[in-house]
Description:
This protein is mostly helical. It is built from twelve helices and no strands.
Amino acid sequence: MADKGSVAPFVKSFQGKAEITSADFLKIFKKFDKDENGFIEAGELDDFLIALAKEKKVGEPDSKQIAEMKEEILQGYDDNFDGKLDLEELANILPTEENFLAKFQHSNILTNVDFFKVWNHYDQDHSGFIESDELEGFLTDLLGREGQSLNPQRITDYQKAMLDLFDKNKDGKLSLPEMSKILPVEDNFLLKFDRDDMTEAQFNEIWSKYDQDGNGFIADEELEALLYDILDKNNKVDIENPCELKKFKSCIMDSFDQNKDGKLGKDELKMMLFA
């Protein structure tokens, strides 16, 4: 989502969620923007206000209550005073998450670990692909971070353009390698090392690279980035297939995660790389 200003959300939760992701927010907007003109207005706005009233636990509002709520909403959130709500105005009414991409400087190349943090955030169903609605959520944040104006048609146009450019097998979704073409991601760090001639100093360099938070373990996105880079370097499996990464991770952890804590310590990684 776009970065929030100082205005607090009108409700603390909506449809059972205390924090709405970009993808879910777009679904909500499209649900109430029935004529798909990029605004929630007239009868659409009344329908939205009824839904808001239910979140406020006031039951089914009558026409007077809807009129009072409409006045309150428009005074507080209708920034351009046009009597309707656009995408960015609605984002201030609902408890939307902060723009996840704002954590990463757009001028910087992402580390592979940070790339996996982005991937896991937008791959909401953990399918191993960024599907069309998830891609729209990602693009909402991407455009918002760049300070560009947001409207549903613009996001849909960008989504189609991204799929045309980067979805090479035309399955309507993005794989890990396809998504990495959209974001500026660093080259595979392991390509400069030869496993057969690896020195202790080189091993320590690899450890420092993937233990990005410096907590003494390689876990979560750090582990996924390391294993993905190993598969990419060896070029022996189809890294487009998310099952291959899961299978490889399971095999590695079964073999080298000696204390079964779901992460790799330094000695465990050394056994893996020098095995």
